[in-house]
Amino acid sequence: MNRVDFVECLLENGVSMKNFLTIATLEQLYNLVSSVKISGELKAHAHYLFQDDDAQHSVRFLVEHTSPTAYLTLPDIGMIIEKLMGNAYKHYYTSRVFKNNYEKFRKKAQLSRLSSFHIRLVSKTSPKRRKSADWCNPMSCEDDAPPDFAYPFNDLILWAVLTRRPEMARCMWLHGEDAMAKSLVAARLYKAIARIAEEDYLEVEVAQKLREYCE
């Protein structure tokens, strides 16, 4: 069973992509990490889904003067999409609303790391105080915040297209809303990436494959 079949199986069994796809998860997907921390029903399957660390799926070749190990944020991805789409296209990841949410996410992540460090420090110095330290941890209780992405399949198809995973892109296209809009955006992105691969990197075969994905 390949990863697309595995994702299809999860969706058929009622897995909610709104609950699964968070800012942290999507950002890690773009950075091709081999394993991620995911809470909830997909935690046990995370390594299988995201262990692919093949350079051929990297987004970094679309960014000028970027180190192969540079960490790409979602606002960075938004700028890449805008450049590929052209015609003054504005993506949600570069909007003020998303950037505000992104800053909240970063602050929350920093607070979580500090809280975890504090708990480990307290548990080492005084095991009896570990329970009270957990109680004081502001990140220990999940809130009822709305999902990070209202239409997760729209975001995942962008990830699949930019990282050149056509089978996964088709899977994301078949689910969710706005199938026509998703197909038009995907086709435009494929053509733009093909042009970059051919003109800037002389990857003619890669460019031809990307153009075939548009059909």
From TrEMBL:
Q: What is its main location?
A: membrane
Location comes to: Membrane
Name the Pfam families for this protein.
TRPM2
Supply the PANTHER family for this chain: TRANSIENT RECEPTOR POTENTIAL CATION CHANNEL TRPM (PTHR13800:SF1), TRANSIENT RECEPTOR POTENTIAL CATION CHANNEL, SUBFAMILY M, MEMBER 6 (PTHR13800)
Q: Name all TRPM-like domain ranges.
A: 2-205
Gene Ontology molecular function: any one: monoatomic cation channel activity
GO biological process per UniProt: metal ion transport
The protein's name is TRPM-like domain-containing protein
A single GO cellular-component term on record: plasma membrane
Topological category with respect to the lipid bilayer: Multi-pass membrane protein
This protein's UniProt keywords: Membrane, Transmembrane, Transmembrane helix
